[in-house]
Design a protein that fits this description.
Layout (H helix, E strand, L loop, with lengths): L5 H6 E3 L1 H4 L15 E5 L2 E6 L2 E5 L6 E4 L1 H9 L6 E5 L5 H7 L18 H7 L3 E6 L2 E2 L7 H5 L4 E4 L16 H16 L2 H20 L8 E5 L1 E2 L3 E4 L4 H9 L2 E2 L8 E4 L1 H7 L3 E6 L5 H10 L7 H4 L3 E5 H4 L5 H14 L29
Parallel strand pairs: 5-6, 5-7, 7-8, 7-9, 10-13, 10-15, 15-16
Antiparallel strand pairs: 1-4, 2-3, 3-4, 11-12, 12-14
Amino acid sequence: MSTPTPRTRRRWVAGLGALGLVLPVLSACGGHGAAQAGGAGGVTIENCGDPVTVREPVEELYAYDGGIVSIALAAGAREQLVAVTGVEEERPLLELAFPDDRVGELNEVGDGYPTLENVLAVDPEMMFAGWGYGFSEARNLMPEMLHEHGIATYLLSETCQQEDGARGTMDPWTALETDLRNIGRLTGHQETAEAVVADIAERREALEAAPQAEEKPTAFLFDSAGDAIFTSGRFGGPQAIFDTAGIANATADVDDTWTEVGWERLAASDPDIIYFVEYPGMTYEQKVKALEAHPASRNLTAVKEKRYVNLPYSMWVSSPLNIDAAEWVRRAAEHWGLLPESGLRSDLDLTRLGEALPGNDWLR
């Protein structure tokens, strides 16, 4: 390990035990997302079990992925976002959701995924990413590599790792609230972040108090597929969305976030609705074609009746847009008579995305 740079000594301390650095931690903390004064105006938060301390608010934040960028924007950190990667496909949604945040002016660097070279060229004070969301051994970008250059890291809480390396250590709403509060604290926007957390809680309460079906309808989330289907288990954002909307997640027993399951799992669940993730790599049309051709799925009721709902990627991954997703998920289930009418609607008008969001014939 190289000697910490002056910036490291001046502004932050992160994961000291893992890094082997002997630096003065300003304070200890306990519990997911705990934050407290770190002495001399500093703040310490807990991130995936490790302390991260800033002695003054972070002014230069690099974020990867539309969901992570939306957390930073919602927490009030637009001016601190000096660079982003992986948001090109999500810009229409982010512009719709954050109309006052000049999303079109975000400085996007790199090509799809961040690289070590990208981050070092920007030289931010902190990078906000996650395991599988930017940080990857295979892509040669790991937190400790940035720490060696005096760049602090904050890990998306949804991706905190279990002992066996699987992602997910807390329920998805807790993970989201933790990140909103932590990013708000780290960038000096605590009040803004708390207001967003309160808004999400109020809207969750309204959805959960809405009339429910005698038997919950079942949903299957279809991200993409080949020999297996990429979906999300109980630690991913979709679990929070379905729970709040009053719908059973067909993969709720999978102890992971985003992961693969076999086609037979889809067949056995016989879902009432199939929800899609709008994401590059496999188009909406290709996903529908695969479902309607595969012997495990082509005779399912949801497929025969074309109960398909397509929502943008950044509404499914951990983000403040998860609550909008829950409102849209509920609305679709009501459309097909699977849940009683609630009158609840999202203020995020997805019909304005036009061709950027294909499918959703049920809205037309």
